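Sharing in case it's useful to others searching the archive later.

Someone asked me privately for the predicted structure of Nucleoporin-domain-containing protein, so I'm posting the question and my answer publicly. Question first, with the sequence:
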Amino acid sequence: MNLAWWASGSRVVLWDYLLPAPNNLTVLADMEYPVTSVALVKPRRNVYQSNISWVLLVVTSNRITFHGLHQQAAPSNVASGPQSQPWEIYDSDLSVDTTSTGEMTSVCGTDDGRIFMCGARDGCVYELVYRRTESWGVIPFVTRGARYELMNRSVAVGSSFYPTLFGGPKHDLIRMVAVDPKRNVLYALSNQEDISVFYLGLAAPANQEASLHFSAPYTSKNIYTAALTQSPSNPSLPNKQSFRIAGLIPTLPQESRYIHLVAVTTAGLRLYFTFFRRNPYNPTSPPYPTPNGAPVSLDLMFVRSPPAVPYDAIVPRTDPAWYGRQRPAEPQPPQGYSFSFTEVNSATICSSDFLIGQALPKTGASAFSKAAILACSPDLGRLFRYNADQNPIPGTMGGMGYSALAPAQRPPLTESWTILPLDGLTHGIAPLAQPTFILTTPDSASVSSEMLTMFTAAPAQYVVLTTSGAYVLQHRRPVDVLRSLIERSNRSGNEDDVQQFHDVFGKEQSCAMALAIACGNSLTLRDWTPPSAPAGQDAGALMRYSVGFEPQLQGQGVEMLAGRLFQRWGGHPIRLRMGAAQDDGTMLFSGKYQGLSIYVGRLLRPIWKEKVATVVGGKTFQTNVTMSTLSQVQTELTNLNLFLEREMALFEIFTTDGPADDVARERELASCKALKALVSRTIEAIAFVMLMIDFGLHDVMMQCDPRVRELLPKMSYEELLVTEQGTEAARALVNAIINHQISQQRSVDAVSDILNQRCGSFCSPEQVIVYKGYESIRLARQEHPSQRITHLQESLRQFSQAARALTPEKLSEYCKEYCDLGYPQGAIGLPLVCAREWDAFEEGAAYFAADKPQGDPRAYRYAQREAAYKCAFQSLKLLDDRVLQAADPAVADADRLRNAAYSIALQSDDEIFHYNLYQWFVDNGQETRLLELHTSFIEGFLTRPPPVLWKHELLWQFYIRNARPTEAAFILDVMAHSTDSSITLEQRISYLSRAVSNAKSLSAPVGEQSPVEFLTDLEERLEVAQLQAELYSQLQQVLGRDPASGEALKKLGSQLWSITDLWQQFAIPYDLDYIKLLILHVSNHSNLNLVMGTWRRIIETAKDTAVKQGGAAHDYISDAIIRYGQRLYPSNVAFPLDLLLDELLRYQYENQDTASIPSGWACRTLTSANVEWRTLFDILESVYLDHSSPPWSTPDGQAFLRMEIAQYLSLWFLSESGPMGSRSSAEFPVAFVDTKVGEYLNQQTSELGRKILLELSKSLRRTY
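And my answer, the predicted structure tokens:
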């Protein structure tokens, strides 16, 4: 709040030191008792009304009084520095009586309103708790009343009521407390110089009251001994009696991960503490953080001594800071002079700066009338020189290495310091504004933040309150030092100091700082002055100190000199070529380019990784980066951009202090231009975001589709600027802005002008063209149907021109408008244009041609194509539905529009669109419609992977319709052998049959096969497939309802198997004898032993069946032979006729007396199996004539065969002369039979046989 206060008796004076007199003083009078302390704390939640931002506590000897303070929020301006804002103070009528506990001191508070203090009488730590209560009336600016409680946190309940009963308190007296509001811990300093840390629990959520958690303390005792152990020869530690701690300063989490507290002694000694546990076996290793950040100990990490103060250090110096080099020889001090830090009474640490207040002795008197401020900060010059030389610089650390906090290679602690003498005694030191922190990597030093922020953040400033007034001290950054050195060298003509600065910081960093000055960075060209200070005001009460006090050059003079340094220091690029002549080599760009890139990077750093927007309360969109930050970054980028436009020749002119390379120059110039383009784009992007904020960011976001609303809070400025997704989001946001402004009754042209003026290149004017196209549609809707075409054609032209600015949602909307207005050219043509423009570089087409690989980034472009195609299909569907819904006479018009739309779609030369259109037909059950189309893309679509069944079904029909039987046969064969388990065995056989039919028409080769070879191959596969069908039927009969049959049948019917697989996997395992014979027949594999063994098993099986069913065995055998023989005859492989006849004759002969087998049974069985009569007779006769094997070699066997021959000849005649026979002698061998009858009549010994033959002879003569 920029307030200072002091007490005088029972009055408190509040001083706003940023306001001019006399309006800067406020007096609080009429206190009941003398004021002993004043503190400014945050209000406790849900007690004060929301407009109360601070609570001023006025502490007297017997009472604590509460005062509410309200201050308006100030729009931060980085360049102008801190500004005072009007504030008001209210008496809340809330006070706390401390008579029973005594006077309170060292009051401090947390961010959530907890208040701590220590008792001056009993040395206890107290917490003041005040809450709402329903019993009180309403206190001004307090909600519903409040009650308070003063809780003693040092001793158990009840013991503090009788402090003297047992001889006084039983604990160390606490004389100072300090709060770390960020880590929620409380530090307490005792009169024994011991420090304790208390954990206050996790911070409460914003809408809840603070908890009252207060943990047991962890105490660091014997601090003097620990400090002396680490720094045994330290002059600031003479003895324990003089060791006294003057202040406790909690560090900010951004400044250190491990150092939590810095204690400053009256001798200026800095003691660094951590409350994390350390490794006792490795003291140099970092402490172990706790999961919730709670303290678990309090250990002294290391000690830092104050510098030795020379005589001239206590007077103002007129030379700039001596970065990275030794000070010049100092003058000798006067006789009797001595100075040391002995009376430090105030200190602060912020942004790596450390300020200590020290009283100066006044010679000849006992009182002090002056103070000295020791200002220390990291010596960035020495650190940069260390990094460049890789040689550590010795530092005074009291024996403790810096590696205790970081890796061993970290640079040592080294700092520069300045002594500033001030009038009056020092009462307090505080930062004038909150510091700016840059997130760094875990292993990077926090001191680097100044190098990162000095171009976008004002220098750190501190206010020192003394008995003479308030002094504002401003930190000198490296860029400020360079500016002072430039001014000094201009006056003196000596540039040694400037060159020394360059040598310390190096070429790149020096060029970056020179460029910042040259292009007019607003944070480097002027010093801070008190706001609202009248001209010519005496600086007695309000002063600013910095290292130098020289008059400044005019801005343009400094810019010109800095530009010359930038040119001179920049050098030229170099190309290193190590290999062949054609190798481009490695480019080492000049210091000018490096300085430019560093400067651009640091200007962008405050916003680069920040999200564009944030959601507050889960529903309200707000900017994530403040307007002041955006404005400051934009201002500095604009200054840089103007400088580059004006002085771009600086990057084309190089010094002649080394070899030059044209290729390197061109590369560097191109890189510089790319950086300039980034700067220009960023300027307009910031302007675009600020425009959204001006229009109402939340209202604009609500005009976006949900995808953009979800995306923007996750998108950084980097992604917005350099990614395709950012470009798409910007287009959507422009549409949202236009929609929002149109809803506010603003014209499209007015919005277009605003966008073009502020961010013309970042926001493409294509969005405006889109809205002009929509305006043409609106005009067409208002016109008579006969007059619409002109407006519709104009809208299509405008939409096509700005197709890249359209979104799928808008495209769908416009297509529907075209359908409603009867304009198929737009409903189909516009999506095709968008598909082409959305994939302008054919990335989506390449992704499609590569069969859509997984994880390919080109999939996004293909998805955009599909989104455009989908709009075209929606138009076709809409027109189809309107034909079905239309009634006469509107059907004709609807059908005409639909036919025109399909004609436009089919005339497109976009192959990917055709493929998607055909797939759309299939998805809608209209796949047969593809056979009616006559486009050049049908065959490619049907042959494109994956080879699914429905594509092949359409493809072979397509080939048939186009008289291409070769391709049809090939596809049918592929379908028959497909691994698709949904195809049944009957379908596969059908496909093969069709393939054979088409193959018979072939005239051209199929691959490497001739037409005849291909046909033969198909026929053989068809025969095997038919065999597989028979096997399936046989297996079904054999397995019946066996549970295992389902899997076996499913396996058999899932594909076409080879004949070997059918034998090995089915015929053999399931013992299918007939199938075995069939496989042998189809494969033409001759193995008589195997075949006859199979037939004998068939006969045995028939016998077993006859026994089970009670029938005649010979009937069952005959049935099996006839059934299988009709399928296998005349195969000599599977149906060896001579062997089968012999087998049957033997069975008949052996069972003629017991089985009642009729004569001629064996021959009748074989003739029923379609064996020719003459063929069978020849075999029968050969059996008779062969007397070699029994029983046919015996008389009985010969007689049996003669009877069978007689019976066979009679049956032969009857079959030919019967009703179904032929009486033609040309077909029936009458003469042959008659000859055989006569021949066997003479040999026949059986009366029955002779009778049969005589009767047959008569019948032959009678018939023929």
